[in-house]
TrEMBL record:
<keyword id="KW-0720">Serine protease</keyword>
<dbReference type="InterPro" id="IPR027478">
    <property type="entry name" value="LdcA_N"/>
</dbReference>
<comment type="similarity">
    <text>Belongs to the peptidase S66 family.</text>
</comment>
<dbReference type="InterPro" id="IPR027461">
    <property type="entry name" value="Carboxypeptidase_A_C_sf"/>
</dbReference>
<feature type="domain" description="LD-carboxypeptidase C-terminal">
    <location>
        <begin position="169"/>
        <end position="285"/>
    </location>
</feature>
<dbReference type="GO" id="GO:0008236">
    <property type="term" value="F:serine-type peptidase activity"/>
</dbReference>
<dbReference type="Pfam" id="PF02016">
    <property type="entry name" value="Peptidase_S66"/>
</dbReference>
<dbReference type="InterPro" id="IPR029062">
    <property type="entry name" value="Class_I_gatase-like"/>
</dbReference>
<protein>
    <submittedName>
        <fullName>Muramoyltetrapeptide carboxypeptidase</fullName>
        <ecNumber>3.4.17.13</ecNumber>
    </submittedName>
</protein>
<keyword id="KW-0645">Protease</keyword>
<feature type="active site" description="Nucleophile">
    <location>
        <position position="101"/>
    </location>
</feature>
<keyword id="KW-0121">Carboxypeptidase</keyword>
<dbReference type="InterPro" id="IPR040921">
    <property type="entry name" value="Peptidase_S66C"/>
</dbReference>
<feature type="active site" description="Charge relay system">
    <location>
        <position position="270"/>
    </location>
</feature>
<dbReference type="InterPro" id="IPR040449">
    <property type="entry name" value="Peptidase_S66_N"/>
</dbReference>
<keyword id="KW-0378">Hydrolase</keyword>
<dbReference type="InterPro" id="IPR003507">
    <property type="entry name" value="S66_fam"/>
</dbReference>
């Protein structure tokens, strides 16, 4: 099996035992692991100071033994070093970059600046190293990065009720909604025409999700897409003040404002078991009222 490098470009590990547990589980499944994180180097809310976190990315990218670079966790931190990242250097390494949430600017920066495909997938602390083992995340990572010869093209068949009938193809891109909205107007967001935009988020009330979607709408990004695929929006609590305004009411409003279809039910986001998604790959999306399918075109794998 190939070698995974663990890096921490964002927050520090609040429970270092999760990192050790994830390493053991990866090794038990045949992966070799190189851990570039030193928990003693944490600085304020970050895994290390900005310069050290950036240097750690390069150290893993330059290591000839490493095949996959896996983010330890999200939180916050990549925005602080984003303008200093040499995306050409990362892309030239040939490594497969995996993460999500705060890692979204890495995915989108690689795509915008180098047309490099990377992978939205599980991370160490919140997914692979939790006390309860989420086997589907391990399996999804392997199926995407090390596909069996007879398993291509990589296809996800997802049961989900109530979606519109859709049959479109385009570039699959996106990530954490707050991070995508944060990058609007910057050099780090790819200008995708006719794409399929996937989004997820955590700790965001429906009105804040609506506001960020409207930002993408007013910026002209949504009208350039063929479809939006929503992952999971988790860990928020409605109050009595919402007075009937919930996530579904928000979606109804957004659907009234844009003409492109919105698909819901993607098992991705801040949830226990998640699929792994090639960001920047071509994809065919077919949906009906009971399920939808994502069939990906070619992308780099092991």
């Amino acid at each position: 099996m190939p070698t995974i490098a663990i890096v921490a470009p964002s927050g520090y590990a609040p429970e270092p035992a999760n990192v050790a547990r994830a390493i053991e589980r990866l090794q038990a499944r045949g992966w070799a692991v190189k851990n570039f994180v030193n928990h003693a180097h944490k600085f304020q809310r970050f895994a290390a100071d900005d310069a050290s976190r950036l240097a750690q990315l390069y150290q893993a990218a330059d290591d000839s033994e490493v095949d996959v670079i896996l983010a330890m966790r999200g939180g916050y931190g990549i925005s602080r070093i984003l303008a200093d990242i040499d995306f050409e250097r990362l892309a030239a390494s040939g490594k497969l970059f995996v993460g999500f949430s705060d890692f979204t600017p890495i995915h989108l920066g690689l795509l915008a600046k180098t047309a490099t495909i990377s992978f939205a997938g599980p991370m160490v602390c919140e997914d692979l190293g939790t006390e309860e083992c989420h086997e589907a995340s391990f399996q999804g990572l392997k199926e995407c990065l090390i596909p069996a010869p007879n398993s291509l093209p990589y296809t996800l068949n997802i049961p989900s009720l109530g979606n519109p009938a859709v049959n479109v193809s385009g570039t699959f891109w996106g990530g954490n909604l707050a991070m995508v909205a944060h990058l609007v107007g910057s050099e780090f967001i790819p200008l995708i025409e006719g794409g399929i935009l996937f989004l997820e988020d955590v700790n965001e009330m429906p009105n804040r999700v609506e506001r960020m979607l409207l930002q993408l709408h007013h910026a002209g990004i949504l009208k350039r897409q063929k479809a939006i695929v929503l992952g999971q929006f988790t860990n928020y609590r409605l109050s009595d003040y919402e007075n009937g305004y919930d996530f579904n009411a928000m979606l109804d409003f957004i659907r009234s404002k844009i003409s492109i279809p919105i698909i819901t039910g993607l098992p991705f986001g801040h949830v226990a078991n998640k699929v792994t998604l090639p960001v920047g790959a071509q994809v065919s999306l077919v949906s009906d009222a009971e399920q939808f399918t994502l069939q990906f075109g070619s992308y780099p794998h092991l």
